[in-house]
Design goal:
31% of the residues lie in helices and 17% in strands. With 224 residues, it is α/β, with parallel strands linked by helices. It has one domain: Rossmann fold (3-Layer(aba) Sandwich), CATH 3.40.50.1820. The strands form 2 sheets. It has a 6-stranded parallel beta sheet, sandwiched between helices. A two-stranded antiparallel sheet has the order 3-4.
Amino acid sequence: MAPLRVLCVHGYRQSGGSFREKTGALRKLLKKHVELVYMTAPHSVQQVSSEATEKENSSGPGLGGDEDPRGWWFSDVQARSFSAQQQCEESLGLYESVAAVREAVRLQGPFDGVLGFSQGAAFVAMLCSLQEQKLELEFSFRFAVLVAGFRSACAEHEKFYSAPLQIPSLHVFGLEDRVIPDNMSRELLLSFHDPQVLTHPGGHFVPAASAHRKTYQDFLKKFQ
């Protein structure tokens, strides 16, 4: 049986390479059943040294700073920066990121599913919405895994949450996450029909302990 192929979408201030390194335990946990393929966001993020950035980068095992930090969109158009809790009327860069996913699917696909972390998980929810609204026909993911996901606070993105998404989804989040508090991830559940949930007692990272194996595998085996 061929393994499922899953496109992996990293978080803000990460890259495909760094996200691959940080999810080594997940790759090992799922290696018999899943091939994880990593892509990098098109937008470079300014290197800044701030307490908030340090907090985000140190809030999980192996989440150090990234040498080539990237992002999927910016909530502050002028500063070209992003905060999950920043309310804004319009964003910058989202559709260039959709185009990058389209290109990744063309060059490296096809993919059975898509996995996103943090800003990447919020982006995955938008990709699923575009797919279901038939606004994006170049990809056809059968399932989505959203880790530390959230609903965008940008008014421009309200259109992505107009109807519950039918795509099968697994939502993973930490009860001690200080970057994306679990209530933000729970709010995103409302945008999906019959979402599956995996919670863990930790912070802002992709959990992959043996205790989580069954939940991942039970979800994924439905698509094999």
